[in-house]
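Predicting holo structure, phosphoenolpyruvate bound.
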Amino acid sequence: MIVILKQGISKEKVQEVCSWLESQNVKANPIYGQDTVIIGLVGDTSSIDMSTVEMNESVERVMKVQEPYKKANRKFHPDDSLIGGSGWQFGGNRILVIAGPCSVESEEQIVTLAEQVKESGATALRGGAYKPRTSPYAFQGLRAEGLMYLKKARDRTGLPVVSEITNLMHLDLFNEYVDVIQVGARNMQNFELLKELGRTGKVILLKRGFANTIEELLMSSEYIMSGGNEKVILCERGIRTFETSTRNTLDVSAIPMLKRLSHLPVIADPSHACGMAWMVEPLAKAAVAVGCDGLEIEVHNDPKHALSDGPQSLTPEAFDALMKKLKPVAAAVGREI
Ligand code: PEP
Ligand code: MN
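Done. Tokens:
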């Protein structure tokens, strides 16, 4: 961090600012220029609040020279992290696919879909049990019952299961029934939830909020990791832009950017990004081409009658065809799927 002082500041004032900064456990090195004095801060500046420093009457401006995230930062961990369980590790050469319905609707539905997506090459099964819906009148999910059906599908197929948590009250249930706890876009900055997930041993799939920057996503991963749980997978799921012809705008550039900034695996969710089934294939191909480590794709046995997100859901047959079409794209960038 660099602190630029106001012009004409006396030496005493410079010393005062340096001592104040050093009381926050960093080394403050003043550099005297012709008209301006700048102070370079060396050490762990992550707990120093830039806006508080900027409020000091002698300070003109504060600049960051290092990213505020440490645990997720590739600078301190140059190799890609492999995150997952035995037989399903995100972040390696193989691109892993999480597939399944937006919502778990019945035991039969989820078990059958699990068998079908596994047959097509999916590595994990998704299914929402607690649904964060825009309208309180929309289907809210089967809740605990949904998690139990997911567990049955897991027992039947061996696929690890992914489901979204919306409330800390349900954490015991998630610990018991799911392999990967998804934090949805709407909860990416629910910091109390993130801190608590940092105390679990579960793999966390952290989705980018639709109005959040890449740095904010990484800071949210930092909340989980700094609590002791470094098993975080990042997900680009589309952001809100001025464009209205798609549900969101898949920020394709976020994928290579996140891979460059962080060692954590990065996956893409083309389904929520576009909101329509026909566009899932081109977006999934794009995500693979730019280096994603995985995909999360909504698949439903009967999209027209789905209780949530039917328009963006692929049929099992369309999913099977998509998996085949992704193979040459993955091969073209030296990956497997
Ligand atoms: C979902 O995966 O079903 C979901 C609600 O996703 P998001 O949080 O990205 O909207
Ligand atoms: Mn959905």
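The chain has eleven helices and 14 strands.
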